[in-house]
Amino acid sequence: MAGVNKCLKYSMFIFNFLFWVCGCIILGVSIWLRVSKDAQKELGLQDGGFLSAVDLMIAVGAIIMVLGFLGCCGAIKESGCLLLLFFIGLFLILVLQITAGVLGVVYKPKIEQQLNITFHELLPLSTQPEPFKESLYILQQENKCCGLVKGYSDWGNIIPQSCNCVPPNDCTTVSGRPVYKEACGTSIVDYFKNHLIIIIGIAFGLALVELFGLGFSMTLYCQIKK
């Protein structure tokens, strides 16, 4: 034990303590969003897809907490077993993260094609469930568009009030009524593309931080074994 570098040991401890704190924050906020009906209503998280994302964040926060705890204990107690468990867990996360990032880069050009297929399956929009239509009403008002693929005709014979257009916006006239000419599909595709770039950037940025963690843990593990 005398050969263990104290600077490395405490650097490893501080790194994993911050890692553990991040896990606590992610887990705490995610649980709050999951159980607080007021927060879900205010942030618009009542949709099942958003709640599934919150459940995923709860799992991520819990995993980060456990790994941070293993890393802290392994460093401060100079336990090779705990450090090895931390290394294996972090390495598996890194592999999954890089895989997800690479798949995101590879499939990014196919997003528009897949979304357009999905949009066509939803037509006519007037036959969709009320929660979906209410979300689309809000989307149309905020982005000044109507429909998903071809425009107002996506709604069939029932064009909602959220499609009403006021000049100088790009309008077209339907039965004497001005409605938005542009479909919302373009805005949705751009939204997904832009956010995918952000997610890919975060994934690879975190990968660099995790590489430092792997280097710290393996170096300290080797010193302990010597």
Give a verbal description of the structure.
This protein has 226 residues and is mainly alpha-helical. It folds into 2 domains: 6-103 and 212-225, no CATH class; 112-187, Orthogonal Bundle (Cd81 Antigen, Extracellular Domain, Chain: A), CATH 1.10.1450. 71% of the residues lie in helices and 4% in strands. It has 7 helices and 2 strands. The protein has a two-stranded antiparallel ribbon with strand order 1-2. Strand 1 (171-174) and strand 2 (177-180) form a beta hairpin. The longest helix is centred in the last third of the chain and has 41 residues, at 185-225. It is elongated. The termini are close together. The mean pLDDT is 80.
Key descriptive features of the protein:
two-stranded antiparallel ribbon; 7 helices; 2 strands; mainly alpha; 226 residues; Cd81 Antigen, Extracellular Domain, Chain: A; 2 domains
